[in-house]
Amino acid sequence: MSQRIIIPLLLLSLVLFISLSTGMELYYRFAYVLVLALAGGFVLAWLNLRWLSVKAKGRTRVAHVGGQYEEEVTVANRGWLPKGWLEVQELTDLPGLRSGDIIRLAGKLEPPWSTRTSQEQSWKLTTFCFKRGLFRVGPVRITSRDPLGFFRLSRSFLDPHRVTVYPAVQPLPQFPLQIADMPDDGRLQRRSLQVTPLASSVREYQSGDSISRVHWPSTARIGKLMVKDCDVGKSSRIWLIVDMQRSVQAGQGYETTDELSASVAASVAQHFLLRGLPVGLVSNGDGRCFVPPERGPEHLERILESLSLQAATGDKPLEDLLLEEERSFSRNDVLIVVTPSQRDEWPRILGSLRARYAAVIAIVVDADDFGGEPRASSVIERLIALSVPGYLVRNGQPLSEALSTPIGSSSSISKLAAAGARR
Questions:
Q1: What DSSP designation does 359 have?
Q2: Order of strands across the sheet with 120-128?
Q3: Which residues of 197-206 are buried (b: 16+ CB within 10 A; e: fewer)?
Q4: In the prediction, which pLDDT does 347 show?
Q5: What is the mean pLDDT of residues 37-64?
Q6: Domains detected in the chain
Q7: Contact by Cβ (8 Å): 51, 141
Q8: Distance CA 284, CA 265 (A)
């Protein structure tokens, strides 16, 4: 029971007790007034919530970190009576979305001098998305009060809907593509810019084609210059291995290593999928995350959704994940590890895997920038010693810049030294 109604009820009980004890007419009248005020207030609050309709349009179903969630909410009065002091709020767990408002609506019996000029009100709800994940938006709750403030009644409108916030995705124009363009004896349905033994068809010569691609028998038979279309081999399978172990993460609020790791993985996935290469995903977050390698924009959506739902609550170390999932990798695959971990074990595992696969790359998210232990330099030194190619990504640094300079290069070493001097 609301605290607002307790005091009037106690007062009514006291007045009734006094009136019955003394028989004084004044107390009886006072009791009648209280009963009428309570009953009338409840009826007014109840009527204020009748004959309302709520619509929402333009609801965003999918957003990206750094993007916006938008929708337009309309509340309309379909009844004859005006509605006063309605508190409208959309219930949500989407961070940053605040939708509370106080409105008044005209009715069909609105007098000419009323200031309520419309039977409906609309407004747009917009918020920036700061965190990936699956969030609930709705229902819309409308609360009405009686004029004396004794009663507070609420009704809910519209079913809740889900909003998936994907990790931020950035273009990576300088990230190397050649790691996935190694010819092989396994046929994949993707055209290669290199001449391979897997010639799948011939086509007419186009400007820019290499002379080495010319298919002379077809050229002689057709009378036009014809070139070979070649497929690439199984080495074009890209595996993204994203470390979501709880104990290696750092940062608070919206700036955390797991958010940056997810953004790195999403950007790398888009980079290769836009070029027609199959990309798979493995992660050790809250439960096993395994997405087999495929191609196409639909597959990019699957990867982004999987990354959105991966909470950094896993207990399995990265080195154990690599050993357990190795059965899923083939000899010609490319493994790209994204991790903030500063443990010494996983670089050793990567070093041993380097000889078994087409390529192994480590992308280290610098946990130092998020308040973690300052050990990123030791991990990088270990990767360099093991000849494992890799990249260092720092907080606030554009991914196109971070993933353009491999660790071990002169420019990368100078940047790392400058960063250490600043600390």
A1: E
A2: 52-57, 68-77, 120-128
A3: ebeeebeebe
A4: 93
A5: 90
A6: 52-166 (2.60.40.10), 191-231 (no CATH), 235-422 (3.40.50.410)
A7: no
A8: 14
